């Protein structure tokens, strides 16, 4: 009799969300797609204005998506914060510009030294 009650309770509750159980965890690809869509929006304007190249776009996309996904907040199940992700993208764009300027300066100095 006890077993039958448990089975019936499970059958009744199977369609309803239990208030005690947290929402089902999203799988990795869905979370990464959500992050990628936020990053795409943040990268759209700099890419259209030619502030970053296609390669830089791809590198920034990979770095930000992996970094956000691996953060403790996402692993805990906290909601994504587009404002923070956009700030992170801006930092990566700034780093990319700095790196590009540094490489250009070094190659220019090397070319002058060769002459």
Overview of this protein structure:
The protein is mainly α. It is built from 5 helices and no strands. It has helices spanning 2-13, 28-48, 54-69, 72-76, 82-114.
**What's the story with the biggest beta sheet?**
none
**Order of SSEs, N→C?**
HHHHH
* General shape: elongated
Count of runs of 4 or more consecutive helical residues:
5
Mean pLDDT, all residues:
81
Question: What is the strand content?
Answer: under 5%
Quick description:
The protein is mainly alpha-helical and 115 residues long.
What are the main properties of this structure?
single chain; 115 residues; mainly alpha; 5 helices
Topology readout:
Layout: H1 2-13, H2 28-48, H3 54-69, H4 72-76, H5 82-114
Helix pairs in contact: 2-3, 2-5, 3-5
């Amino acid at each position: 009799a006890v077993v039958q009650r448990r089975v019936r309770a499970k059958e009744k509750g199977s369609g309803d969300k239990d208030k005690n159980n947290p929402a089902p965890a999203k799988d990795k690809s869905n979370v990464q797609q959500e992050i990628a869509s936020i990053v795409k929006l943040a990268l759209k304007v700099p890419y259209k204005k030619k502030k970053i190249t296609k390669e830089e776009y791809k590198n920034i996309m990979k770095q930000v998506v992996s970094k956000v996904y691996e953060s403790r907040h996402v692993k805990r199940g906290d909601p994504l914060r587009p404002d923070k992700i956009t700030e992170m993208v801006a930092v990566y764009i700034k780093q990319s510009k700095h790196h590009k300027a540094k490489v250009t300066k070094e190659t220019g100095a090397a070319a002058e030294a060769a002459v």
